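Moderator note: this is an archived Q&A kept for reference. The question asked for a predicted structure of one protein chain; the sequence and the answer are reproduced below.
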Amino acid sequence: MTTLTVHNHPEGVVVEIWVQPRAKQNAFLGIHDGKWRIALTAPAQQGRANAALMAFLAEWLHLRRSQIVLLRGQTHRHKTLLLRDVTENQLRQHLRSLFSEGE
C-alpha cells in the first residue's frame, strides 16, 4: 500500500481524498499518490456525495462528524479534509489497526 500524505494543522491533520461517486458500495479503495481513494454510492449532486463522505469517514475513523471539515473540493472529486483533534500519529495507528484486523 502506498503511504498516505498527512499534513499537520493547528487544529489536527489535513488529508487528501479522491472520491468515486455512484459506486456499487461505500468502500475504502486504497491509497494512490498519497490520497485516500473512497467509493461512495451517493451521486455527486446537491452535496449528497460530500454528506456521504463525512458519514463514511466518521464511522470508519470513529470520529464525530463535527471533527471532519471539508476545506477544499466541494464540487470536485479531489477533496482536502481537516480531521480536528487528531494527530498524525493517532491517525496512522488507527489505520494500522483497521488494516491489521482485515488480515
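Archived answer notes: The chain has one domain: 6-101.
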